[in-house]
Write a structure and sequence with these properties.
heterodimer, A: 387 residues, alpha/beta, five-stranded parallel beta sheet, B: mainly beta
């Protein structure tokens, strides 16, 4: 009798999202065939470590936690590396890839996000680096050799983490951001400003309320001209201004997209056989490019893929900002949330809570010594706070 | 005594050393760490990630 061949679940992308969903699935089912397609090497590493690798004493190779071949064996999957997916044929449930055609039973898109690039003028505009994966990081570390002055475009979470890491390693760092204070998209003024002095003490030079207009080649380095006319010298320019979900492949296949690939709480796209999670996905209207949402989404999706329809239920997910000079933990609130940030305590750092109209705690920032109170604060969420 | 690694961020927990700065005494087994403990590096809760034996 001819054995009927089962079509695999195909996962696109070998980042934390792609590997986590497979790892979770394998806890439930060892037998469903799974194929992972990645344009990268398939080595498993932790992307959040890219912005604190210097402090950990690690180079790009040292950041690899598990080699690709070992991942494939451990997880019992077929791994197609250095392979680009060109198109999804939804009618026939087939992918066109640089390694040929591939059939799928279910498809999981975990392609991540691209760094946003802000257009700058000048003859060295193309020398501005972005670090979005381990290959970028290897190149960045090569270029960093014997360099002193580093300019970072963007004073958000990643920009501040890189600033801390580079300054701790002895580099002179300039941070340029059009916003009013560090990590302004997640944090209120009093909290964001806590980072200013501790990082300045390490050698970080802040430029808020302006942006980089030009990057030109100077004799042995680069000359940056800011919108406010300030000129800065730098040996290396790093851009960390944000991420844009990779939606092109999904869009081209006719899936519903918005900022990210639109999926419901089951991580299911507008095509019932196609799912998305991680930095490329917009889950129930929200793009959440952090570690914790990925872990929760991976767990729920694994159950659905194993046959038990499961909606993701996100708990409170505080974001840890890796700035050892002044630790920060933030549970952000929606931009349009009704309520106010209030200072609950000050000392070596600050403790702030976001109180809604009923005075209930719905968000918080813990900085400095208060960062250790993460679990206690999470437990107080939803409670009425009288400060 | 064992050594464990967070598969999300690479954080190492050595049972021999514990984490005195987090209130976890030297010699504390991974199994005895409270369920509400969160990885100091990536914030993932104990129940939310896998530790692998190194």
């Amino acid at each position: 009798m001819r054995e009927k061949k089962m079509k695999p679940i195909v996962v696109l992308g070998s980042g934390l999202a792609g590997y986590s969903v497979i790892r979770e699935l394998r806890k439930l089912d060892r037998d469903i065939p799974v194929t992972l397609v990645t344009r990268d090497s398939g080595d498993y590493y932790s992307k959040p470590m890219l912005s604190n690798a210097l402090a950990q004493g690690k180079d790009a190779a040292g950041l690899v936690l598990t080699r690709a071949a070992e991942m494939a064996t451990q997880l019992g999957i077929k791994l197609l590396v250095q392979t680009e997916v060109q198109a999804i044929d939804r009618t026939n449930k087939k992918l066109a890839t640089t390694a040929g055609e591939l059939e799928y039973d279910k498809l999981v898109i975990a392609l991540g996000a691209d760094p946003i690039r802000i257009p700058v003028q000048g003859d060295a505009a193309d020398a501005v680096l972005s670090v979005n994966d381990i290959a970028d990081y290897a190149r960045f570390r090569e270029l960093l050799e014997n360099k002193t002055r580093i300019a970072i475009m963007g004073g958000g979470l990643i920009g501040c983490e890189f600033a801390n890491d580079l300054a701790s390693a002895g580099h002179a760092v300039s941070v340029i951001d059009p916003g009013p204070w560090p990590i302004a998209s997640l944090m209120p003024e009093q909290a964001g400003k806590q980072l200013l002095a501790p990082l300045a003490a390490l050698g970080v030079d802040w430029h808020f309320g302006t942006s980089v207009s030009r990057v030109d080649r100077a004799s042995s380095n680069y000359l940056l001209t800011l919108a406010d006319g300030t000129q800065l010298q730098a040996d290396l320019v790093l851009s960390a201004v944000g991420l844009r979900p990779r939606i092109a492949l999904a869009q081209q296949a006719g899936l519903e997209v918005n900022r990210g690939i639109k999926v419901d709480t089951h991580l299911r796209s507008s095509d019932a056989a196609i799912f998305a999670l991680g930095d490329c996905a917009e889950i129930d209207g929200k793009v959440q490019p952090f570690v914790l949402p990925i872990m929760h989404a991976a767990r729920a999706l694994a159950k659905t893929l194993a046959g038990t329809e499961t909606a993701v239920d996100f708990p409170a997910m505080p974001v840890v900002v890796k700035t050892p000079a002044h630790p920060l933990v933030v549970l952000p609130v929606a931009r349009d949330a009704a309520g106010n940030w209030q200072t609950l305590a000050t000392g070596d750092g600050i403790k702030m809570g976001f109180l809604n109209q009923e005075n209930r705690l719905t968000g918080f920032v813990l900085s400095g010594s208060f960062a250790a109170e993460r679990n206690e604060m999470s437990k107080r969420l939803g409670q009425v706070i009288t400060s | 005594m064992k050594v464990w690694q967070c598969v999300v961020c690479g954080f190492i927990y050595d049972e021999t050393k514990g984490m005195p700065e987090e209130g976890i005494k030297a010699g504390t087994k991974w199994a005895d760490i409270p369920e509400n403990w969160a990885c100091p590096d990536c914030g993932v809760a104990k129940a939310d990630f896998e530790m692998i034996e190194v």
